[in-house]
RNA sequence: CGGGCCGUGGCUCAGCUUGGUAGAGCGCUGCGUUCGGGACGCAGAGGCCGCGGGUUCGAAUCCCGCCGGCCCGACCA
């Protein structure tokens, strides 16, 4: 009684449960003792480090510098920007004491702080307060900062990688002399996210602007990249905010302009988080586990020596080591190949399936029979586990970089086809409701997708759709020709179609 | 913070109605047979049955309180 797939249940049977199982069997992360907080395990963290390294390079190449600001934000700082406070007040962790005392054998908080400290949900306010001190003249601008940090948002409904109380991210914060420059920066970073998502994570994203109701608290404009994962729900994979002069006013970021006037700076902020890992999982993985895009994979290739026959073990191992060494001399996309050699004394099937579940792009099995024929069994993760090609060792080694490139390309094509297949222009309210209503309301089947429809711009419609269908406007897309039309809910004029979906 | 469910070895759970000193599967350890689709046999380790109190000769089981978790709602990268 062998299960056909490594993951039970399948995506079709129960998507949320499947998602959790993938994380578990791929050994990416687990829930911690602390409610809502996760432990990111070595395989998951290595993936994050690869993402970090690429993004970090991209930020530096566009003139940004890394900094580190405190985890604790004085309550008074957060209070300065009204909308900002309102947006985050409900999910802040607050530190109120600075020591513990032993009372009746139990540790209790003692010594209240004069002013409570908020554990950063984001750092606009404290960075703003600091940057205000650094900026005196237009000559001090722009200031282009980024920090890699953890943030805390006390979520009621945690889900590994998608929504946890504490998560890792990067937050960019910049200050500019003019509105135009700040807007350019906002768009530049959005574009970087878009490029990163597409070229490295193989995520086809839609980029656009958020409606007022979905905007970052305190921002004038919020841009985002949105993608559609396999249960046809949208997920926001990155955001970039044009903050206008709101935070400059709140924090007093003022400078003397070229004409000698005292002016407020124009600021931006932008970020992506470990949520990208959740997005990757839901986008590319299958019923056998995780599928890693080669460019961010912690290992590009795993070599699986079949070492079970005592008499051939030594030779198989030494051949495996030699292949490993030759592979490591090669490179893929400007990086030395990352190769794992699994020398554990386990059955071939066991080892093979472990690496399938972890999502390694290429597996090379090397057994005693291969030694005689001078070949190796090559499998790629984007093909069926049954597909195994026996090819000469030298050829296999030479082909690996090209195969990785092909897998990378293939994942993007697949994901793009999926997105396109589930993106529809919808021109009537009836069709819209039908699109977002599951046939089986007790246990909703996978349904919906991206709906491109005309909308009159009113908040009332957004609220009604959210209440009726849990559908929101994901973004007002760019790059889609702005063909005018009529709002499908009110018949009023509409400038362009916007993107609706159910979302994470 | 409102409504429902549940706390028993690492994990998933049975046992509770009808109180009598703890079980299964998976995982783990050892040995052996296997081994290129994730195998099997045998032998083991591992639990103050969420916490506190009560009823009782005796409580995982009945009663009360507390704590923790899950699901459904409101909020969210």
Walk me through this protein's architecture.
The longest helix has 29 residues, at 393-421. This protein folds into 3 domains: 15-284, BirA Bifunctional Protein, domain 2 (2-Layer Sandwich); 299-405, 3-Layer(aba) Sandwich (Rossmann fold), CATH 3.40.50; 423-501, C-terminal domain of ProRS (Translation Initiation Factor IF3, 2-Layer Sandwich). It is an alpha+beta fold and 504 residues long. Helix content is 34%, strand content 28%. Helix 2 (42-61) crosses helix 6. The mean pLDDT is 92. The chain has 14 helices and 27 strands. It is globular and about 80 Å long. It has an 11-stranded mixed beta sheet, with helices on both faces. A 5-stranded mixed beta sheet has the order 18-15-19-20-21, sandwiched between helices. Strands 4-6-5 form a 3-stranded antiparallel beta sheet. The structure holds one RNA strand of 77 nucleotides.
């Amino acid at each position: 009684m062998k299960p056909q797939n490594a993951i039970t249940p399948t995506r079709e049977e129960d998507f949320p449960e499947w998602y959790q199982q993938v994380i578990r069997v791929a050994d990416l992360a687990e829930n911690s003792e602390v409610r809502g907080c996760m432990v990111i395990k070595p395989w998951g963290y290595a993936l994050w480090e690869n993402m970090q390294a690429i993004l970090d390079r991209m930020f530096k190449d566009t003139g940004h510098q890394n900094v580190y600001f405190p985890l604790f934000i004085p309550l008074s700082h957060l209070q300065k920007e009204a909308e900002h406070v309102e947006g985050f007040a409900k999910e802040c962790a607050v530190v109120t004491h600075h020591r513990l005392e032993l009372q009746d054998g139990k540790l209790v908080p003692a010594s209240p702080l004069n002013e409570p400290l908020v554990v950063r949900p984001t750092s606009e306010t404290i960075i703003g307060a600091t940057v205000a001190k650094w900026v005196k003249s237009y000559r001090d601008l722009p200031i282009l900062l980024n920090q890699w940090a953890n943030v805390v948002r006390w979520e009621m409904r945690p889900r590994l990688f998608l929504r946890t109380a504490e998560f890792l991210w990067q937050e960019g914060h910049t200050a500019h002399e003019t509105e135009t420059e700040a807007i350019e920066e906002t768009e530049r970073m959005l574009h970087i996210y878009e490029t990163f998502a597409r070229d490295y994570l193989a995520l086809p994203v839609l980029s656009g602007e958020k409606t007022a109701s979905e905007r970052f608290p305190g921002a004038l404009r919020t841009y985002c990249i949105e993608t559609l994962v396999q249960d046809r729900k949208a997920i926001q994979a990155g955001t970039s905010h044009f903050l206008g002069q709101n935070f400059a006013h709140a924090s007093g970021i003022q400078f003397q302009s070229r004409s000698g006037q005292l002016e407020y700076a124009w600021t931006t902020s932008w970020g992506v988080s470990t949520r990208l890992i959740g997005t990757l999982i839901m986008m590319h993985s299958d019923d056998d586990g995780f599928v890693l895009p080669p460019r961010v994979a912690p290992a590009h290739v795993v070599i699986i020596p079949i070492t079970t026959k005592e008499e051939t073990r030594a030779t198989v191992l030494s051949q495996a080591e030699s292949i490993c060494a030759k592979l490591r001399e090669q490179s893929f996309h400007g990086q030395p190949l990352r190769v794992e050699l699994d020398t554990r004394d386990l059955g071939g099937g066991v080892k093979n399936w472990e690496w399938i579940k972890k999502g390694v792009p290429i597996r090379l099995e090397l057994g005693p029979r291969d030694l005689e024929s001078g070949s190796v069994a090559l499998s790629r993760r984007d093909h069926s586990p049954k597909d195994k090609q026996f090819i000469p060792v030298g050829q296999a080694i030479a082909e690996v970089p090209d195969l990785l490139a092909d897998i990378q390309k293939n994942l993007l094509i697949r994901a793009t086809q999926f997105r396109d297949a589930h993106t529809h222009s919808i021109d009537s309210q009836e069709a819209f409701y039908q699109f977002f209503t599951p046939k089986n309301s007790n246990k909703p089947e996978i349904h919906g997708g991206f709906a491109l429809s005309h909308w009159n711009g009113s908040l009332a419609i957004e609220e009604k759709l959210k209440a009726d269908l849990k559908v929101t406007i994901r973004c007002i897309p760019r790059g889609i020709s702005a063909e005018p039309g009529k709002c499908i809910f009110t018949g009023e004029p509409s400038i362009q179609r916007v993107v609706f979906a159910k979302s994470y």
